[in-house]
TrEMBL record, chain A:
Keywords: Transport. The keyword Protein transport does not apply. PANTHER family: ARABINOSE-BINDING PROTEIN-RELATED, OSMOPROTECTIVE COMPOUNDS-BINDING PROTEIN GGTB. It comes from the Bacteria. Pfam families: SBP_bac_1 (PF01547). The lineage of its organism: Bacteria, Bacillati, Bacillota, Bacilli, Bacillales. It comes from Halobacillus salinarum. InterPro entries: Bact_solute-bd_prot1, SBP. This is Extracellular solute-binding protein. The keyword Protein biosynthesis does not apply. Belongs to the bacterial solute-binding protein 1 family.
UniProtKB/TrEMBL annotation, chain B:
InterPro entries: ABC_transporter_permease (IPR051393), MetI-like (IPR000515), MetI-like_sf (IPR035906). Residues 65-276 form the ABC transmembrane type-1 domain. It is found in: Cell membrane. The chain crosses the membrane at residues 12-34, 69-92, 99-119, 160-178, 250-277. Its main location: membrane. Pfam families: BPD_transp_1 (PF00528). PROSITE patterns: ABC_TM1. The keyword Cytoplasm does not apply. It comes from Halobacillus salinarum. The lineage of its organism: Bacteria, Bacillati, Bacillota, Bacilli, Bacillales. It is a multi-pass membrane protein. This is Sugar ABC transporter permease. Gene3D superfamilies: MetI-like (1.10.3720.10).
Length: 435, 287
């Protein structure tokens, strides 16, 4: 290479590097400039999983009826999404409307500081008290439900169940026996999608009905720092169940990297038969795989005792108003309309409920998904308990990773439980609880 | 006449000095302070060294030191060895030299996140390009990113692929700077190509070698984006590096602890890079 040429080569590199740096800065700036929009526009930050056809339809309806445009921004779910919300709140760069988890994750945001108190609003009368509890702190109420409630349990493919002559298991052992038969038939018994780590937690979170049935005081003592996962055998079972599923090789070959979308595809097409998951996946299956959603059913995570068999329920995400928004009044109108009967009608015309609504006087429609109908007997007989994150303000942020550690075989259940107890303690201290 | 000593008064430094202080010195100083607090962004409480102690006690945090060391030294080694070989090859008499040099440098220009996502897809155990190709010749490829025992090395491999171009360019510059008469002398003495590499190229491209080692090592110690795009620290905690742990503590809302992690990362990089830098510079030879 001659001298001139090598100089030119160097120059070229420097130009490239400078361009790259400038491009980086530019991208950051444009990403940050998303405060409140124009006069009749509200900005809204939602999680990817919440951006469903029903939600979109209501947003459009609000634009038609109230003349309020909504600029919806999407963020990822799980810890990464929480981080985005926390950062944007801390830097004062939050959208007007925020859709976020209710329960313990909301409590970790310091809602009193960031969100408008809706306690005195007349439209809040429509919201059930059981929901108000999970979006309240220090007597203030912060949000409305974004959709219906849902359950976390074992979604299963009924067609395959019929083919293999299986019946819905009432105990953990029966479930494992089913898994064995499914594995022998050459199908994936349990779908694992650790590519999105939050999905790995379901076998422990959905076990909470069983925990509270056997140790009724667990939630209270756990919040007070007295009950621990490692020292409560009934709570430890959740971790052990993940270990058992993994050790017996019931999961798909690529469970360590598979995504949520791949998981729902496997379940819908019947190549995978069980998926421990939230029923929020149902509308997505309906959207992507059409009629196949009718083959999907759900049963509670079975316990070791056939007498204890009930569903763990999740309260819907909340829609809240940013305290620093310049359009609080408009946002309140938005919320009021969102839970009105007209809005619900539009919502359910596009997307069916994934569980009972938490609004007064709203019944589950007749044409619900078969899986949702399967849930009704449990609700009617009262065999339902809210998940731990709705009865305690503390959830350790490392739970997804701890669960994938067990599932990928790098950690045993007992060690994982101890680690989670430490994680919870750290979270309690960060929340300022006196432990 | 102008006194040359007074040509640039000290206050000329002010603009740069202020920017440097506000955007670098001040945050650095503040981070040392906040690393010793319980911090919620609105409120803080001084707790001494508790955060640092926690960082060494908790297994999920401690694993970062080990992984970061493995990652930094593996990628550094890979970049040095492959980069040097490529540079020697690209400085020899071959056709399309400039084109090949561009090809080697090309991955450096790509966005790290894009590279991460691409390799994540290619490394998928059943549908990924790599294992599909291996299956064609009858080899069952491993679960590159899903197997906790090799996931970190898979990420390191990707980092080497992406970073080797920079190392090669620096080596090429170093080799080009070696005067030709050393090689002529070698030829007269009857030395072969390998002796030329071992006794001339290697010792005389020492400054380039040192630069590559230091750059690659510091880069490796601070890596975050690639590992985040490829594995997010998983499966479990098996590919967590210090930087990704700091990010996760921050994401979890443990601001004091995350800041302490950053201070540790800063000290860690300093403690490893500085002595190596000193050591390498002492051994440099003059041309």
């Amino acid at each position: 290479m001659s001298k001139v040429k090598s100089k030119r080569f160097g120059l070229l590199i420097s130009i490239f590097v400078i361009c790259m740096i400038l491009a980086g800065c530019g991208a950051e700036e444009s990403g940050a400039s998303s405060g409140s929009g124009g006069d009749d526009t509200l900005t809204m930050l939602v999680s990817e999983t919440a951006d469903t056809p029903g939600f979109r339809a209501v947003v459009e309806k609000i634009e038609d009826e109230l003349g309020i445009k909504t600029k919806v921004e999407k963020r990822p779910g799980g810890p990464e999404g929480e981080n985005i919300v926390k950062t944007r709140l801390a830097t004062g760069d939050m959208a007007d409307l925020v859709l976020f988890n209710s329960g313990s994750l909301l409590m970790a945001l310091d809602p009193g500081k960031h969100f408008v108190d809706l306690k005195g609003e007349p439209f809040m009368d429509k919201v059930m008290d059981s929901y108000k509890e999970v979006v309240s702190k220090d007597g203030q109420i912060f949000g409305i439900p974004a959709k219906s409630s849902q359950v976390g349990g074992w979604l299963y493919n009924k067609k395959v169940y019929k083919e293999l002559g299986l019946s819905v298991p009432k105990t953990w052992d029966e479930l494992m026996a089913n898994n064995e038969k499914i594995k022998a038939a050459g199908k994936t018994a349990v779908i694992g999608t650790y590519g999105e780590t939050w999905t790995s937690q379901l076998p422990i979170l959905a076990d909470f009905y069983n925990v509270q049935a056997e140790v009724p005081s667990f939630a209270e003592e756990y919040t007070a720092g007295k009950a621990k996962y490692a020292s409560t055998p009934e709570a430890l079972r959740g971790f052990e169940r993940i270990q058992e599923i993994s050790e017996k090789g019931y999961m798909n070959d690529d469970y360590n990297v598979a995504s949520y979308n791949q998981g729902m595809k496997m379940l819908a097409e019947g190549t995978g038969v069980h998926y421990p998951m939230l029923t929020q996946v149902l509308p997505l299956i309906a959207e992507n795989h059409g009629e196949l959603v009718n083959d999907i059913g759900v049963f509670p995570q079975p316990s070791d005792d056939p007498e204890v068999n009930g569903l763990t329920a999740w309260m819907p995400d909340a829609i809240m108003i940013n305290k620093e928004s310049k359009n609080v009044e408009k946002a309140k109108k938005w919320l009021e309309y969102y839970i009105s009967d007209e809005a619900l009608e539009v919502y359910t015309s596009k997307e069916k409920a994934i569980g009972p609504f938490v609004l007064k006087g709203v019944e589950l429609p007749e044409d619900s998904y078969p899986a949702v109908k399967e849930m009704t007997p449990y609700f009617e007989s009262g065999n339902v308990a809210p998940a731990l994150e709705f009865v305690s303000p503390i959830k350790g942020p490392n739970l997804p990773q701890i669960c994938t550690s067990i599932g990928s075989g790098t950690m045993k259940a007992e060690k994982a439980a101890k680690m989670y107890d430490e994680d919870v303690e750290k979270q309690a201290k960060q929340l300022g609880l006196d432990w | 006449m102008i006194n040359s000593k007074k040509m640039y008064p000290l206050y000329f430094l002010l603009p740069a000095g202020i920017i440097y202080s506000v955007f670098f010195l001040l945050p650095t100083g503040m981070s040392f302070f906040y690393s010793m607090t319980w911090w919620t962004l609105d409120d803080w409480e001084f707790i001494g060294f508790d955060n640092f102690i926690q960082f060494f006690q908790e297994p999920s945090l401690r694993i970062g030191f080990r992984n970061t060391l493995i990652f930094a030294f593996t990628t550094m080694g890979g970049k040095v060895i492959i980069g040097l070989l490529l540079a020697v090859f690209l400085c020899s008499k071959i056709r399309n030299k400039n084109f090949l040099r561009s090809v080697v440098f090309f991955p450096v220009l790509l966005s790290t996140i894009a590279v991460g996502i691409t390799f994540k897809t290619m490394m998928h155990p059943t549908t990924g390009l790599i294992n599909t190709a291996l299956a064609k010749i009858g080899i069952t490829g491993p679960n590159w990113l899903g197997d906790p025992s090799i996931a970190l090395l898979s990420v390191a491999m990707t980092d080497i692929w992406k970073g080797v171009g920079i190392a090669t360019v620096i080596f090429i510059a170093g080799i080009m700077a070696i005067p030709n008469h050393y090689y002529e002398a070698l030829k007269i003495d009857g030395g072969n190509a390998f002796q030329g590499f071992w006794h001339v190229t290697l010792p005389l491209s020492r400054p380039a070698l040192n630069t590559v080692i230091i750059l690659a090592l510091i880069g490796g110690l601070r890596t975050f984006d690639l590992v985040w795009a490829m594995t997010g620290g998983g499966p479990g905690f098996s590919t967590d590096l210090l930087a990704s742990i700091v990010y996760k503590q921050y994401a979890g809302g443990f601001y004091g602890l995350a800041t302490a992690g950053n201070v540790l990362l800063f000290l860690f990089v300093g403690l490893i890079a500085f002595p190596i830098f000193k050591f390498l510079n002492r051994k440099e030879v003059d041309l």
